[in-house]
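Blinded run. Sample ID left blank on purpose so nobody reads anything into the name before looking at the predicted structure. Input follows.
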Amino acid sequence: MIRAFTSGPFTGRHFTIIIVAFFAVVVTVNVIMARAASRTFGGVVVENSYVASQKFNGWLREADRQKALGWSAASHRRSDGRVVIVLAGLPQGEVIVQGDARHPLGRMADQPLTFKRGGDGSYVSAQPLAAGRWYLRLAVRAGGQVWRSDQELK
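Blinded prediction complete.
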């Protein structure tokens, strides 16, 4: 007969209580984690994974073409919430900068941003952006070329 930390023998009743308590903890943790996951995931990564897989090689070629342009962008947020973009390596002439601010967890709606050229050559958004963590998706058009960038806004 096996003795546990009790004064009496270890019975089937003890074993049943231990097994039920174990599975109660497992089920409770799973329910908590599933609820937390469903509340924090913002939605779809791609609308149609098959279509995305068919376009993947084209996206890689486009990325190589954009990298060959040698353009770069640095972004930051001013104290008034407006986004500032500093571009480098672009050809002379008209430059059009557009962007979307995306919340990484999808808790807030995407915010389209339009930019105007500042006196120092940087581009400043016409709209302020709410505080928090954002990813900035830029589209820059200059010299008949389009350059895109995704970056975390700091």
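Unblinding after everyone has recorded impressions. The beta strands are 72-77, 83-88, 95-102, 111-117, 123-125, 134-142, 145-153.
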